[in-house]
Specification:
Layout (H helix, E strand, L loop, with lengths): L1 H12 L3 H12 L3 H27 L5 H24 L5 H33 L2 H32 L4 H22 L15 H14 L5
């Protein structure tokens, strides 16, 4: 799991949202609305699916199979963006923007769908006395490697023409994310003896407003 977190952070450093990703989008459109839509797509499509899958995941005796499926779907779209930039550099800007937006929508949505499963799996397989060290070490190492990833992206963008330079950045992102995916696959998760009884769908959705009122920080 430390491998997963470390290389996931490294992968994201190659296409950091407020720098590389925004710059790439600005090459594809001059519309401020469309440029600003990209980070909005990432945020919204990551968080809302968690409301849908949380109840289902609660009932699963093992979370890893769910996470393995959606973890792969979360990573593949970055390869699609890279291939368009590298194999079809003359693609119309509107087409390239569409591929970017749809791919990020798919990646973030799948990441959101799998997030509750990943959190539950980590809570099960990592002893509580080791969680702080694992998250701290992996986040620190991922941030350190991310500095190198950002520096490498800067060199690629400075030396290679558009869109090839961005294609390599997305390709490096995909490779790093697949190394992180290996960390997901290496998990050995024991099944829970008796799956939790999840609330009914109606009770679950009725409980959300009260949960938000009781926890102002969630707002």
């Amino acid at each position: 799991n430390a491998l997963d977190i470390t290389f996931f952070n490294l992968g994201m450093s190659f296409i950091y949202s407020t720098t590389v990703l925004s710059l790439y989008t600005s090459y594809l459109t001059t519309s401020a609305v469309l440029i600003g839509l990209i980070p909005a797509i990432q945020s919204v499509s990551f968080f809302w699916p968690q409301l849908i899958t949380a109840r289902h995941i609660q009932r699963l005796p093992r979370k890893r199979p769910f996470m393995v499926k959606f973890g792969l779907l979360e990573r593949l779209p970055y390869l699609f963006i890279a291939l368009v930039a590298l194999l079809w550099p003359g693609a119309p800007s509107s087409f390239a923007y569409g591929v970017l937006a749809i791919s990020l929508l798919l990646a973030s949505t799948c990441g959101g769908l799998g997030a509750p499963a990943w959190q539950s799996m980590v809570a099960k397989v990592v002893p509580v006395t080791l969680r702080g060290r694992m998250f701290g070490l992996s986040s620190a190492l991922g941030g350190l490697l991310g500095l190198g990833g950002a520096a490498l992206s800067r060199q690629i963008l400075a030396q290679l023409p558009f869109p090839t330079s961005f294609g390599y950045c997305f390709l490096l992102c995909f490779i790093s994310l697949m190394i992180s995916y290996l960390g997901v696959l290496l998990n050995r998760e024991p099944p829970r003896e008796s799956p939790e009884l999840a609330p009914t769908a109606a009770a679950y959705w009725r409980s959300l407003p009260a949960l938000l009122r009781q926890n102002p920080n969630l707002m």
